[in-house]
Specification:
By secondary structure, the chain is of the alpha+beta class. The chain is 15% helix and 19% strand.
């Protein structure tokens, strides 16, 4: 399960030998191993993160944001689905909180590593934002005008299956406070049921 969201990276280690030839008389200091470049944590001038009544930290507009504006990119370590699942399993039972976001069939973004403020945007059943995936990158766009001081939110649509443990699913209760809150951050329909419907449609077309 994941935040539209969840899920090895092959790490290319660059080594510097620092070797010198035998003909060299003077000792030459070993070359320093190049340090990996740190990924820039890019935040948006439109928003800031602070405590939220919904859950933990939230993200708030600090200037007027117009409908259609690109607010921020969802950043973090880019890993495979297998690695993401492994991390999720190790995490164990908790409050259902996750920073994992599916960016493509191959890539999951773990905003718990090198992430930015986008990871703090809470779920909302009456969202003012939506996620847009372009070339395996995830962006948060405004779907209506947002006033300064207003908390940002988008529908997580967390994937789940009808065979999942109800006790585990209960961890994903929604506290957004919207008038038409559906009470959960989970997608409206389980993935296995969606797959069944797709198969049924394909069979119907073949007839």
């Amino acid at each position: 399960m994941a935040k539209q969201n969840r899920r090895t990276q092959s790490r290319n280690k660059t080594r510097s030998s620092g070797k010198t030839t035998r003909s060299q008389k003077k000792s030459v200091p070993k070359a320093r191993r190049p340090q990996p470049k740190k990924r820039a944590v890019l935040n948006s001038p439109l928003v800031e993160a602070r405590n939220s009544p919904i859950h933990g930290r939230g993200v708030y507009a600090i200037v007027p944001i117009k409908k259609g504006a690109r607010v921020i990119e969802y950043l973090g370590e880019r890993i495979s689905h297998g690695e993401a699942d492994a991390r999720y399993e190790k995490k164990g039972d908790d409050d259902g909180h996750t920073f994992l976001f599916i960016a493509s069939n191959r890539t999951v973004i773990d905003a718990g590593v090198d992430g930015n403020d986008a990871r703090f945007i809470n779920h909302s059943c009456a969202p003012n934002c939506e996620t847009v995936i372009e070339n395996s990158r995830v962006f948060i766009d405004a779907i209506r005008n947002i006033k300064p001081g207003e908390e940002l939110g988008y529908d997580y649509q967390l994937t789940w299956e009808s065979t999942d443990d109800p006790a585990e699913l209960a961890l994903y209760a929604c506290r957004c406070g919207a008038k038409k809150c559906r009470g959960t951050m989970l997608d409206k329909e389980p993935t296995d049921k969606k797959d069944e419907k797709k198969k049924a449609k394909k069979k119907a077309k073949k007839r």
